[in-house]
Design brief:
The complex is a heterodimer of chains A (751) and B (136). Chain A is of the alpha/beta class and 751 residues long. Chain A is built from 24 helices and 29 strands. In chain A, strand 1 and strand 2 form a beta hairpin. In chain B, helix 2 packs across helix 3 (55-62). The termini of chain B are far apart. Chain B has 136 residues and is mainly α. Chain B has one domain (41-136). Chain B has helices at residues 8-25, 46-53, 55-62, 65-68, 73-77, 94-103, 114-117. Chains A and B meet through helix 1, strand 3, helix 2, helix 8 and strand 27 of A and helix 1, helix 2, helix 6 and helix 7 of B. The complex binds iron/sulfur cluster (SF4).
Chain lengths: 751, 136
Amino acid sequence: MSATRRQFMVASAATSALAALGKPTKAFAAAGGGIKWTKGVCRYCGVGCGVYKGVRDGKLVAIKGDKENHNDGYVCLKGFLLPQILYHEDRLTHPLIKKNGKLVKASWDEALDLVAKKFTESVKKNGKDSVAFYGSGQAYTEESYAASKLFRAGFGTNNVEGNPRLCMASAVGGYVTTFGKDEPMGTYDDIDNADVFFIIGSNTAEAHPVLFQRIARRKKADPNVKIIVADPRMTPTGRIADIYLKFKPNTDLFVLNAFANYFVQNDLVDKEFIKNHLAFGKGKAADQNWDAYVAFLAPYTMEKAAEVSGCPIEDLTTAAKLFGCKKNRTMSMWTMGINQRLRGVWGNNLIHNLHLITGKIGIPGSTTFSLTGQPNACGGVRDQGGLCHILPYGRLVKKPEHRAEVEKIWGVPPGTIGDKPGKHTLAMFQALETKDIKCIYIMCTNPGHSLPNVNRYRKAMADPDTFVVVADIYPTRTTELADVVLPAAAWSEKEGVYGCSERRYQLEHAVVLPQGEARPDFDILVDLAARCGYGKLMPWKSPDDAWEELLLLAEGTMYQIGGITRARLRKDHGVIWPCPTEDHPGTKLRYVKGEDPWVPDDYPHRIMFYGKPDNRAVVWFRPWENAAEMPDEEYPFFFTTGRVIEHWHTATMTGRCKELKHAKITSEVEIHPDDAKKLGVRTGDGVRVTSRRDSLVFPALVTDNSQPGLVFVHMHDDNLKRMCNKITIDQFDPGSKEPTFKICAVKLAKA
Amino acid sequence: MKWTTFSAVALTLVGLLALAGWGIAGPAENPPAHPEVEGAVTPDACEVCHQEVTPEVHSEWYDSQHGMLAVKCFVCHGSTGEDFTKDPSIDRCVGCHADQVETMAAPFMKDKSCFTCHPAHALMAHLPVAVEGGDK
Ligand code: SF4
C-alpha cells in the first residue's frame, strides 16, 4: 500500500471514532413528506423480495423492504440501491440503427419498420425458422408471452428461447423427470421449520442474500439447527455452516449417491413412504425396483466418497446422519453449482432421491428447493412457456393436443404452431453462426457477455450477414453487436408480473415515466406485431389484457393460477400457486393433502405426486461421471465461475450504481496458496488463465477459500480483457441443454 | 505485470486535498472526501483496505450481524469521492429498518441517532444498558 493511501486512511479512522458517537442524523427524507410509496418487487434475483418504491417529484428516490411480503421488510445491498439503475447517464433514450458500421440515432418508425421488414422478408425467403427470439428471466411474464405468441403464431417458429436455459433448465429437468411437474413443492416458509439445511452448489450468502439471512435467523432462533454447506470453494455462505464439505470439483454426484447408500445401510429410509409413493428408474424408463437401487448404490460407500471428494469421512458421515436422522426436518437448497454442469439434471435427481427415500418431503421444513437466479425465470419463462420445447403452463410443443389447446385459445388455424421444438440457446446461436438463423430479436439480456465460449457467438452476432435486434435499457456487450437497438423502459417504468423461486406471483407497478423515448417491451412487441401484419394476435390495450389470456391458458392445467387475477395482484403482496379461486390463500405445500387443491380430500395418503400418471415420484439411478472437460496434463486446473454479492449478472445495472461500480467489479482469479506458491504469484499479481478457447490475464487473489487445482473468477466484469466467458466451454447437459459454466480446464502462468 | 488497487496519482491529489481540508475544519469534522477511485483498476472492495488500516472497525463490523449478512461499508457510507459520507444519515437504514426509522420522529428521540443505541459498525441490537430517556 502506498504511504499516501495509508496516511489518509489512518487519519480518517481516527476522526471516525469521534464522529460516530451520538451525532444527530439527518431526519429521514420520508418523514419530511413528499414521498409516495408503492409496493413492488426487487429487480434483481430470484428471491423476489417485496419492496416499497419511494417516488418524489416524479423520480424514484428510495427503496424499503416490504414487511408484508416473504422478506419481512428486508432487502440486500443491491436491492437497497435500486433507484440508481434508472438514472445513469448512459440510459438508451432513442432507437439506434447501424449504418456504415456505426449505431446512429433513428426514429421508432424507422427502427421498427426496418425490424418488421427484415424479419418478414427472411421468413418469406429463408423459411419460418430463419428467425428467432432470445428472451430473459428478467422480462415480465406478459412481455415474454407477447414475444412467444408473435414468434410461434406470427412468424410460425418455435425458435423461442431465453436465458433461463443458462441457469434453470437443469432444475426444470430434475423436477420434471422426478415429479412429473416443474417447480419446487415447498416455499421459503420451509426455512422457518427446518432442523437441517443442506446447501450444495449455492453461495446463498451472495447470490440469494435475503434467504441466507432467513436461514441465519432460523439458526439464531434455534441453536440446534444444523447447516451443512457443500461447495468446492469456501464461500461466505460457510460463515453459518456447522459442516463444510469442500469437495473436489465434480465429485458431488458421487457424494450424493454415497449419502443415499448411507441412508440405506443405516436404516434411515422410510419404507412405508417408499412403498406408497416411489418408482425407480434408470436411463429414461421408470422400470426398476428397490433392490436394483440398493445394488446400484453399493459402490458409493462413504470410504470411497471420502477418497474421491477429498472430504474427511467424519464430516461426510456426520452430514449424512444429520440429513437422514428420522426426527430431523431437512431442507436442501442448490443453484448453479448443480445446474450448470454436464450432468446438471442428474445432480438435481440425486438431491430429490435423498428426500424421497427418507420421506423428507411435503412436511413443513422438509423439502427439496431449487433457488432461481432471476426474478422471473420461473413465472415468466418456465411457467409461461418461454423455451423452445414448451408452451404455456406445462404444455409441450411435441404433443399435438397441447398445440391444439393453445391454437384454440389464440384463435389461429390448427397447425399454426410448428410440431417440432425450436433451437435451444446454444443451438440457436450456433445457427446464427451458420446463417441458418438470419434474424434474432434479443430482449432484456446480454448474450454478448453471458454465453459460454462467448468469442464464438460474439462473432456470429457481429457478422454483417446476420440481423440482430437488441432491446435493453443500457448499452451492453450485446447492443454493441446489434444492427438495431431499441431503448426499453426499465423496471418501475412499466407494469408486469414477476414469479419468483417459490411459485409466488407478484405485480410490479409502474411508478415513474420511461426515460427519453424508451418504451415498455410489451408495447414494442405489440407495435412490431402490427407492423409485421400480426396485429390480430395482440388485440391488447395493456398487459392486463395479456394476463387475462394467460389465465385462460392456465385453466385446466396443473398450474391453477385462476385465482391470481390482476385485481388481486394489485392488492396482495404476492400469491403462491396453485391458487384456483380469488379467495384461495395459495398453496405452500404442493402435492400435500389438505393443502394442494389438486389432491383429493379422500386420497389415502398425505402426499400425492400427481405429476406422474401412477402418482409415484421416480428415484433415478444416476451415476457419477466426468465433466465435459476435465483437467489434464496440458490444462491441469479446474476453472469455475460465479457471483459476488455486489453485482448482478453482467453488471449492466449494478455496474452503474455509484456505490457498486468500484466494489469488486474487476474479476480476480481466486487461487489457492499452494498453487500460487508454485507459480510464484502473490495477491495483485497478474495471472494468465488459458483454456482451449482463449487466454486472459486476471489479478490474483491468493486465498485458501479455494483449493489446490481449482481457480474461480466471477462472471460480472464486462471488460473485454477479463470476461470470464471467453474462457468457459460451450458444452451442455444433454438433457437440459444447459451449458456447463461451472467446469472447464485451464492452465495458469504468471503474467 | 502488477495490478494496482488505486491510481496513485488520483489518490495523492485527493488525499492531499482531503488532508488540507481537514486542517481548516478540525479533526472532529467529516473528512471532505474518501479517495476517489474512479477509473482505477480496483479488484478490492472497501474491506480489503480497511482490514489493514482500521482493523478494529473492520472486525467490529465483520463479526456483527451486518457483517455476517454482507451489509457492506458502502450501504451506510456511500461511495468514494463526494459520494462518501462518514456519518451515515438515517436514510441509509430505511431499506431494512423502515419501522424503526419512523420511531426516530418521536419527541424522546430528539438529538439522538440510530447510533446512540446501536454503536456504529457493531450495530448490535441494543446497548447492554438503557440509554437515558430511551425507555420513557
Ligand atoms: S435478495 Fe435478491 S430479490 Fe432480495 S433484495 Fe437482494 S437482490 Fe433483490
